[in-house]
C-alpha cells in the first residue's frame, strides 16, 4: 500500500484517499492494513499540520472527515501548547473553509455533512478562544451573513451549536470555571445575537434560512431574559411567520410553545405578559378555524398536513391548555375551549404513536384535575354554605363531560394490549400457539390509556362510563357485531379500572362480562373465538379478585374452572396458572377460611386438581401452582391443620424426591442419565416453589430432606471431579450437574433467607453445610467450581453472620485462598465467580466487619489485594463493587482504634490505594462511578489529616505523614502528566484539602482538575475560586429571568 507521506515529509493526498477508500470499502487483510495506517497517522503529533492540504486536495469526503477529527483531537488536547500564530492559522483556515462551502448553493447542499463537522470543530476552538482571544467573533459572524443566504443559514446554525454546547453539552466536558466564563460571555452578547435573529426574520424570505433561524431561537428561548421575549417584536414576528410561511410552521409552533411554557414571574409585568401568551393562542385558534376539516383517517386537513406539523400543533395545544386552561375557563372563553378539545378528539385515529401519546397526555391532565375537584366536592357537598363552589364544580364537569365520555368510548374501543396478556398466534391453519410479545411503544400507550380511563371511571356519576361498556358488550352478541379485536379491547379496558366505579356497580358490570363471555365461549364453534372468550375470563378474573370474593360460589367456580382450562387448552395454560396465583394473592384468606368452611377439604380438592394437571403442564407452570398453594397454606391459623395441609401439598413432590434419592443411593451413576437429571432438577424446583411462599412453615419439610440434599450435592461433586469418565455427552452432563448443585444451594438459600429462627439455622444446618460445600469446593477444578456456593454463603452471612463470626473469618480465609488463586491467573474466564466473591466480601464487611478484623496477618494482604483488583477491573460492574467495598472498609478503618488489621493497611496498602484510585480516575478506559472514586480519595486523605495513620508513611522518615502524602500525590500527578507545573499541583492540593469535609465541592474541584489535566498547558488554577465567582455573578447579574435555572446548572 502506498505511503501517506512523501520522502520530503509532505502529505500524499492521493495515497491517503486510496487508503481511506480501502478502509471503508475493502475487506480482509487490505482493510486491516488500511486501518493500521490510518490509526498510526491520526496518532502522529504532526498530522494536524496537513489538514489544510488534505481539505484542499482530497476528492474523498471521508478523508476530509478524518482530517477534521484529527484537528478536533488536537484542539481538545494540545491547543494550549500551540503558538499564537498557529492558533490563528487554524482559526483562519477553518473559517475560510466554512465560508467556501457556503458560497455556492449546490456545494452547500452537497457538502452539508462536512460543513456541519467543520462547524462543530469551530465550536471546539471557540471554547478555548472566545471571548478572551476572539472577542469580535459574534460581530464578524453577523457581518459575514450578508454575503449569501447559505452563509447566513450556516451562521445561525453555528450560534445554535454555541448555545447547545454551553447549556446542554459542555457541563459534562469542561470545568465549572470555564463553563461559567462561557455562560457569562454569551449572556453579555445575547443582545447582539438576538437582534441578529430578529433582523433575519424581518428581512429574509428564504424558508430554509427562516427555519434555521427559528431553530436557533428555540434554543435561546430556554435561557434568554424575558424582556427579549415579551418586550420586543419577537412574538409578532413568530405569529406572522406561523400564519404566512407554511414551510416553517412546525418549528415556529415549537418556538411559540416554548414561550408558552415559560413560568411568568408574578410581578408588575405579569398581566401584560400573560395577555401576550393569550395572543399567541388566539392566532393558533384562528388557524384551526380557517383550515381545520377532519377527514376519515382522523388526520387534520390543513395547508401543511404532514405529521411534523400535526405533532407541533398538538404539542402546542396540549402545552397551552395544561398551563392556561383555568384562565380560559375563568374568562368564559367557551368557544376556544370547544375548538381545541374537539380538535384533539378528532385527532383520535392518528397512526403516529408519538402524536397519540401527546393527545393522551393532555386528557390525562384534564381528567386528573377534575378528579381532584371531585374529591374536594365530595367534602364540600355536605356543607350548604359552599353551594357556590358546588355550582362551579358542576358547571366545569358538565362542560367537559361530553368530551370525556367520547374520549372514554374511543379508548374502550381501541385499548392496547396489556403487557401481562399473552398473544395467541395462528401459526398455521391447524395450530394456535402462545407467545409473549411485548411492544414497548404499545405498552407505553396502554399505560397512558389505563390512567386516563381510570380517571374518567372515577367520574362515572357524571360521565356514565358503565353505559359505554354495557352498550359495546351487548353489540357483540350479533353476527355482524362480533369481533375478537373489539372483545379484547373491551375486556382490556374493563381490566384497567378496578376499584374506580362504585363497588356494586363494578360487581354488576364484572358479572355481566363474565357471564356473557362464558355464554359466548359455549356458543362459538371456532377455536380462536373460544380461546379469546376464555382468555378474557382469565384476564378479568385476575384483575378483579376482590369483586369475585364477594360471591363465594362464583369464586369457587372460577378456581375450579381454571384447572379445567389448564387441561383443555394448552394455549392458555400459562395465563391460567398466573391467574390462579393472582387470585390467591388477593383472596387467600377467604379461600381458606370461607369457602366450604373447611380448609382441609378445600385444599385437598385443589391439590387433587393440581396433581392431575402436572402431566400436561410445563414445569414452570407446575411451580407457579405449587407456589400459590403454599401461599394459601400460610393463611391457616391452626398449626396442626397447617402441617396436615403441608403434607397434602408435598405428597407428590416427596414421592418424586423419595424415588430420586432411592435410585441415587442404589446406583449414583444414574445421574449420568439425562432424563433422570431433569427429574432431579424439577423436583428441586417444586420444593423451592413451596418454600418461597411458606417460608418458616417449610421447616419440617426442609429438615427432612436436608441430609439428602447434602448427600446429593457431594455425589454430583464427585462425578464432576472425575469429569464424567468418558461419556459422549460430557458437556451437557457437566452442565446439568452444575444446575442440580445450583438448585440444591438455591433451595438452602431460600429457606435460610425466609427463616425467622437464626439460632435454629446456626445449630441445625450451618456445620453440615460448611463441611459439605467447602471441602468439595476446594477439591474441585477451577472450571467446576460453582459460583452459587458464594451466593449461598452471602445469604448465610447476611442472615446469621453476627452469630458465627469465627466461622465467617474461617470461610473468608478459605475463599481468599482457593478462589483468589484461580482469579489471579485468569480474570476473564471466571468473572461470575469473581463477582460472587466480591458480593460475599461485601456482605461480610457490612454484616460482621469483626470477622474481617480477625483475619490472620497472612490473609490480610490477600484481602486488600482483592479490593485493589476490583477497583482496577475494566468491567464497570466489578469496579463499582470494588469502590463501594473500599469506601466501606476505609470508613470502618477510619473509625477504629489501631489493630493488626488497620496497621497492616496503613503500612502496606494505604499508599497503594491512593495510587490506584488516582490511576483509575485518570484512565478513560474505566467507567465506574466518579462519585465513589472521589469519596474513596476523600476517605484516604482524611485518614492522614485526621491523624488516624499512626505509622510513618515516609520510609526515609524525613517527612511527616501530611507532608509525605502531599509529596506522594504530587509525584503521581507529575509523573503521569509532565506538563503540569509544581505550583499548579500545590494549588490543586490546597483547594482539595480545604474542602475535605464537603464531599460535593471536593468532587467538583477534583473533577475540574482531572478535566484540565487532559489538556496540555491548560490553566489549572482557574477553578479555585469558582464558587465565589459564580455566586457573585448571579447576585449582580442584570438578567431578568427568574429563576435563571439554565444559567445556574451544574
What's the arrangement of secondary structure elements?
Elements: H1 13-25, H2 28-43, H3 51-57, H4 61-78, H5 84-102, H6 105-110, H7 112-129, H8 137-144, H9 149-169, H10 176-188, H11 190-203, H12 207-220, H13 226-230, H14 234-244, H15 249-261, H16 270-291, E1 293-294, E2 300-301, H17 307-330, H18 334-345, H19 353-380, H20 387-413, E3 423-426, E4 432-435, H21 440-458, H22 460-463, H23 465-475, H24 484-494, H25 503-523, H26 527-543, H27 545-549, H28 552-568, H29 573-593, H30 599-613, H31 619-633, H32 639-666, H33 674-694, H34 699-721, H35 730-754, H36 758-779, H37 788-800, H38 805-825, H39 831-847, H40 849-853, H41 857-872, H42 876-894, H43 900-921, H44 930-945, H45 961-976, H46 982-994, H47 999-1013, H48 1026-1036, H49 1045-1048
Antiparallel strand pairs: 1-2, 3-4
Helix pairs in contact: 1-2, 4-7, 5-7, 7-9, 9-12, 10-48, 11-12, 12-15, 14-15, 15-17, 16-18, 17-18, 17-19, 19-20, 19-21, 20-21, 20-23, 23-25, 24-26, 25-26, 26-29, 28-29, 28-30, 29-31, 30-31, 30-32, 31-32, 31-33, 32-33, 33-35, 34-35, 34-36, 35-37, 36-37, 37-39, 38-39, 38-41, 39-42, 41-42, 41-43, ...
Amino acid at each position: 500500500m502506498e505511503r501517506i507521506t512523501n520522502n520530503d515529509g509532505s502529505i500524499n493526498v492521493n495515497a491517503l484517499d486510496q487508503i481511506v477508500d480501502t478502509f471503508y470499502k475493502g475487506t480482509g487483510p487490505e482493510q486491516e492494513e488500511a486501518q493500521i495506517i490510518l490509526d498510526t497517522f491520526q496518532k502522529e503529533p504532526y498530522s494536524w499540520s496537513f489538514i489544510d492540504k488534505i481539505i484542499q486536495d482530497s476528492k474523498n469526503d471521508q478523508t476530509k472527515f478524518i482530517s477534521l477529527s484529527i484537528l478536533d483531537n488536537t484542539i481538545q488536547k494540545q491547543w494550549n501548547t500551540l503558538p499564537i500564530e498557529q492558533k490563528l492559522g487554524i482559526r483562519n483556515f477553518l473559517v475560510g473553509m466554512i465560508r467556501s462551502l457556503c458560497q455556492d448553493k449546490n456545494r452547500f447542499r452537497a457538502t452539508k455533512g462536512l460543513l456541519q463537522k467543520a462547524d462543530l470543530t469551530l465550536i471546539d476552538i471557540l471554547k478555548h478562544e472566545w471571548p478572551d482571544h476572539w472577542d469580535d467573533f459574534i460581530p464578524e459572524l453577523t457581518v459575514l451573513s450578508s454575503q449569501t443566504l447559505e452563509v447566513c443559514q450556516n451562521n445561525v446554525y453555528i450560534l445554535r451549536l454555541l448555545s447547545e454546547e454551553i447549556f446542554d453539552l459542555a457541563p459534562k466536558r469542561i470545568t465549572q470555571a470555564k463553563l461559567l466564563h462561557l455562560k457569562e460571555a454569551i449572556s453579555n452578547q445575547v443582545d447582539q445575537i438576538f437582534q441578529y435573529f430578529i433582523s433575519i426574520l424581518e428581512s429574509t424570505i428564504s424558508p430554509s434560512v427562516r427555519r434555521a433561524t427559528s431553530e436557533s431561537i428555540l434554543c435561546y428561548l430556554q435561557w434568554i431574559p424575558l424582556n427579549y421575549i415579551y418586550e420586543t417584536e419577537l412574538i409578532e414576528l413568530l405569529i406572522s411567520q406561523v400564519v404566512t410561511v407554511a414551510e416553517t410552521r412546525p418549528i415556529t409552533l415549537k418556538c411559540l410553545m416554548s414561550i408558552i411554557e415559560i413560568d411568568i414571574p408574578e410581578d408588575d409585568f405579569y398581566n401584560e405578559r400573560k395577555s401576550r401568551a393569550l395572543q399567541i393562542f388566539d392566532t393558533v385558534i384562528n388557524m384551526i378555524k380557517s383550515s381545520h376539516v377532519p377527514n376519515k383517517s382522523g388526520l387534520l386537513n390543513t395547508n401543511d398536513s404532514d405529521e411534523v406539523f400535526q405533532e407541533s400543533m398538538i404539542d402546542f395545544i396540549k402545552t397551552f391548555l395544561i398551563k392556561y386552561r383555568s384562565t380560559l375557563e375563568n374568562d368564559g372563553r367557551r368557544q376556544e375551549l370547544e375548538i381545541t378539545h374537539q380538535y384533539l378528539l378528532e385527532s383520535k385515529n392518528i397512526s403516529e404513536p408519538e402524536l397519540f401519546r401527546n393527545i393522551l397526555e393532555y386528557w390525562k391532565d384534564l381528567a386528573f384535575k377534575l378528579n381532584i375537584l371531585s374529591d374536594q366536592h365530595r367534602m364540600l357537598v355536605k356543607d350548604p354554605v359552599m353551594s357556590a363552589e358546588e355550582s362551579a364544580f358542576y358547571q366545569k364537569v358538565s362542560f367537559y363531560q361530553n368530551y370525556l365520555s367520547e374520549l372514554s368510548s374511543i379508548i374502550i374501543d381501541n385499548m392496547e394490549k396489556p403487557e401481562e396478556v399473552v398473544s395467541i398466534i395462528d401459526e398455521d391453519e391447524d395450530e394456535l400457539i402462545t407467545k409473549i410479545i411485548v411492544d414497548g411503544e404499545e405498552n407505553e400507550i396502554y399505560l397512558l390509556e389505563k390512567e386516563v380511563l381510570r380517571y374518567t371511571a372515577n367520574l362515572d356519576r357524571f360521565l356514565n362510563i358503565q353505559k359505554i361498556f354495557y352498550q359495546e358488550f351487548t353489540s357483540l352478541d350479533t353476527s355482524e357485531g362480533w369481533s375478537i379485536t373489539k372483545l379484547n379491547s373491551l375486556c382490556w379496558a374493563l381490566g384497567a379500572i378496578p376499584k374506580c366505579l362504585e363497588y356494586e356497580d363494578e360487581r354488576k358490570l364484572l358479572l355481566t362480562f363474565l357471564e356473557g363471555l362464558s355464554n359466548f365461549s359455549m356458543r362459538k364453534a371456532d377455536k380462536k373465538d373460544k380461546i379469546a372468550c376464555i382468555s378474557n375470563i382469565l384476564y378479568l378474573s385476575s384483575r378483579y379478585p376482590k369483586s369475585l370474593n364477594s360471591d363465594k360460589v362464583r369464586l369457587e367456580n372460577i378456581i375450579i374452572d381454571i384447572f379445567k382450562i389448564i387441561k383443555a387448552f394448552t394455549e392458555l395454560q400459562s395465563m391460567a396458572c398466573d391467574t390462579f396465583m393472582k387470585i390467591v394473592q388477593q383472596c387467600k384468606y377467604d379461600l381458606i377460611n370461607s369457602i366450604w368452611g373447611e380448609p382441609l377439604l378445600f385444599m385437598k380438592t385443589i391439590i387433587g386438581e393440581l396433581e392431575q394437571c402436572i402431566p400436561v403442564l410445563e414445569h414452570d407452570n407446575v411451580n407457579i401452582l405449587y407456589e400459590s398453594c403454599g401461599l394459601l397454606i400460610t393463611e391457616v391459623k391452626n398449626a396442626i391443620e397447617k402441617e396436615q395441609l403441608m403434607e397434602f401439598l408435598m405428597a407428590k413432590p416427596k414421592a418424586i424426591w423419595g424415588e430420586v434419592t432411592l435410585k441415587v443411593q442404589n446406583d449414583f451413576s444414574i445421574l449420568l442419565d439425562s432424563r433422570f437429571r431433569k427429574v432431579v432438577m424439577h423436583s428441586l424446583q417444586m420444593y423451592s416453589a413451596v418454600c418461597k411462599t411458606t417460608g418458616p412453615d417449610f421447616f419440617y419439610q426442609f429438615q427432612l430432606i436436608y441430609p439428602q440434599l447434602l448427600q446429593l450435592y457431594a455425589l454430583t461433586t464427585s462425578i464432576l471431579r472425575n469429569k464424567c469418565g468418558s461419556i459422549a455427552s460430557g458437556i451437557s452432563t457437566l452442565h446439568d450437574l452444575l444446575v442440580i448443585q445450583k438448585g440444591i444451594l438455591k433451595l438452602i438459600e431460600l429457606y435460610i433467607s425466609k427463616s425467622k429462627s437464626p439460632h435454629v439455622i446456626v445449630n441445625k444446618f450451618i456445620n453440615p453445610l460448611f463441611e459439605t460445600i467447602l471441602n468439595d469446593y476446594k477439591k474441585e477444578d477451577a472450571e467446576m467450581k460453582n459460583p452459587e456456593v458464594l451466593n449461598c454463603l452471602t445469604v448465610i452471612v447476611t442472615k446469621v453472620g453476627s452469630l458465627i463470626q469465627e466461622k465467617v473469618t474461617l470461610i473468608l480465609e478459605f475463599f481468599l485462598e482457593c478462589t483468589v488463586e484461580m482469579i489471579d491467573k485468569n480474570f476473564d474466564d471466571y468473572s461470575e465467580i469473581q463477582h460472587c466473591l466480591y458480593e460475599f466480601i461485601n456482605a461480610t464487611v457490612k454484616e460482621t466487619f469483626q470477622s474481617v478484623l480477625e483475619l490472620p496477618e497472612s490473609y490480610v494482604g490477600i484481602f486488600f489485594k482483592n479490593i485493589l483488583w476490583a477497583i482496577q477491573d475494566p468491567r464497570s460492574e466489578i469496579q463499582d463493587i470494588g469502590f463501594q467495598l473500599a469506601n466501606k472498609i476505609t470508613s470502618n478503618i477510619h473509625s477504629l482504634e489501631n489493630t493488626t488489621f488497620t496497621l497492616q493497611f496503613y503500612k502496606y496498602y494505604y499508599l497503594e490505594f491512593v495510587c490506584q484510585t488516582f490511576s483509575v480516575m485518570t484512565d478513560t478506559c474505566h467507567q465506574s462511578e466518579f462519585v465513589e472514586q472521589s469519596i474513596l480519595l476523600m476517605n484516604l486523605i482524611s485518614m492522614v489529616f485526621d491523624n488516624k495513620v499512626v505509622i510513618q508513611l515516609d520510609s526515609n522518615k524525613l517527612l511527616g505523614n501530611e507532608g509525605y502524602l502531599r509529596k506522594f500525590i504530587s509525584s503521581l500527578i507529575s509523573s503521569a502528566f509532565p506538563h503540569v507545573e509544581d505550583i499548579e499541583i500545590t494549588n490543586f492540593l490546597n483547594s482539595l484539602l480545604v474542602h475535605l469535609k464537603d464531599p460535593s465541592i471536593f468532587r467538583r474541584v477534583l473533577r475540574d482538575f482531572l478535566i484540565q489535566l487532559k489538556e496540555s498547558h491548560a490553566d489549572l488554577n482557574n477553578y479555585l475560586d469558582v464558587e465565589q465567582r459564580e455566586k457573585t455573578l448571579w447576585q449582580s447579574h442584570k438578567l431578568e429571568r427568574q429563576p435563571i435555572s439554565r444559567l445556574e446548572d451544574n
